[in-house]
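Task: fold both queries, return tokens.
Query 1:
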Amino acid sequence: MAGKNSQPRKLNNPAMGWLLGRVFRLWRSAISQSVKPMGMTEARWSVMMKLRTLGEGVSQHTLASELGIELPSLNRTVNQLVELNLVERREHPSDKRCKCLWFTPAGNQQLQTLETFVGTVRTELTQGITDEELDGMFNVLKKIESNACALLDKPTEGGL
């Protein structure tokens, strides 16, 4: 982290943080628009994709934390996914109070379709960008994430 006497770094305009936020919102909106015909809302597809990333059997508490949302908000979305027969809750093997999430067979099928749609959007959004540029951007973002977590005294999220 920069010392107290160091000058603030000059970043390109528009401000980098603003641009990161805008790209994030546009990226998510593009995915949401793509999967809308599947009956997927942003909340639903976000939960399904993060559950895939974290792995089945993850607790609702861990999933909420990784998504950066409150447990009651996650519960509403999980209730919808349960009603749609896409996920199911199971008791944790050693803590009966804790509920863990698993995909149903229909959920696994929906997840495959969802991943296809998301992959298509990713491809469209990264047109004209080389693999090396994407790798470099990823590495820079991971460093910014790490610095932000250190500044806020938080563990890094999302693995890697």
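Query 1 returned. Query 2:
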Amino acid sequence: MNTITELRFTSERPRDDGIVERDLVVNGIPGILWTPGSASASAPVPLILLGHPSGPGLARMRPRLDGRARAAAELGFASVAIELPGNGDRPALPDLESARAELRQALDAGERPSEEVIDRLVLPLVDKAVPEWRAALDELLALPEIGGPVAYSGGVLAIGIRLAAVDERIVAAGLFAGSYVPLSMFDEARRVTIPLHVLLQWDDEGNDRQRALDVFDAFGSAEKTLQANLGGHTGVPAHAGEDAGRFFARHLTPRR
């Protein structure tokens, strides 16, 4: 049975900085699309998919996403974020909530979460989110002002791995190594061959540094950069965003 896809915009806000910010619903999933003022049918722009953590929801993440979207627009790129499964106003996923509670319990006790908890937390989310991202991308690339190429930016790290492994439209990824990756996904990481820029906060209190390093080592990309900075999960220095911007500029800007 064919899946019916649909993209509709629910609001549009031209901004003083030249960005057009539009709330949208794609296949029943809320999201936000930011396009630079230069985007048009005669001059379509590349697109960055903005990944974000599972838990806070799109509304709470919006200010941080807006900063990333503004940086992308300054480079001439559009960017989009969609709500993750089980987040925001989307139907709750009880198994996900249970695994998230067990993760917090382990971290609060100063323990490492078990592989079983990591699997229950991450794998169902990846299995649901990646097809949603791909279906959304079908609709977004049909817009006259969006022309590609496409990149993925941010987390959840495992979602970025799966997308980069299965969707040939994604030509580069700037990944935030700030979430757990199940051991079963290492084979997928080995199949990722696009250019990568991976950001790791060295003192991230909610992540497994060694697992993040092992994932980076597993990536099959000939071009991959690991940028590690001191500090916790939310202590990313400003220059890290600038470095990521240069990475995307190299791989998304058409060569003349």
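Both queries returned. Flag for query 2: The chain has one domain: 7-252.
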